[in-house]
Amino acid sequence: MTFEVMLVVLFSALLHASWNALVRSSADKFLSTLHIVCGAGAFAVVLLPGLPLPATASWPYVVASGLIHVLYFTLVAYAYRGADLSFAYPLMRGSAPVLSALAAAWLLGEAPTPGGWLGIALICGGVLSLAGSAWRPGGGGLRALASALGNAGVIALYTLVDGLGARLSGHAFSYTAWVFLLTAGLMLGLALVLRGRQLLQPTSNAWRNGLLGGAGTLGAYSLALWAMTQAPISAVAALRETSIVFAALIGVLFLKERLGRWQLGAVLLVCVGAVVIKLA
Known about the structure:
Blueprint: H1 3-24, H2 29-47, H3 59-82, H4 85-108, H5 114-134, H6 141-169, H7 172-195, H8 206-228, H9 233-240, H10 243-253, H11 261-279
């Protein structure tokens, strides 16, 4: 992985942590997630006329990814509602790189180097340590654990689908825009079924959160998929999980959260893992 690609992935991780902070601060997690997905879809509508169509071979991946992302965003909202963010988020994001790396090695023959495996292990160990430090009775229990681990599997699935789809598309940004446009339509349909007329009720900061969060999630994933066309999927997926570091910093600096010694050690472990991946 080149230094330039590494910087792109780290910026993608920062954007990802930022839109998650918007969901975290909202009262209705599902509605906030819907606003963000629709915001990303709106940006996609604006951008797509200036982008080339993805190659024909990538369209099955676009459709599959849209369906998978509906499940992903729904589980994100559910996990945030049923457990502390500091528990669910690192567990979801920390487990996914291991599953992605194993699947990429098994299905694509894209096995990381020994140093790459070490970096992946350090990053995963760090984020899972953060989850462990956040665990406490009443924090969601086994249901939260099952929800977070289930979404980790979904993350690993869409990482592989989109890693392949972006490579086949010939244009990662166009591919991502079509994925989010499809996801927004499907999410809106699901929300109409689940919430009905409640969606018509005005909510505070909906437009702001939708546009800011939509730009964040669309930008973050576009950059991540572009990076997957330039570097191994497993390495990009693992490095992208440094978003938990940015989330911790955002929590301390802007949300006035406390970062204990154990959490600080876990954050440093993630940073070391990122360096090891670069050196590998």
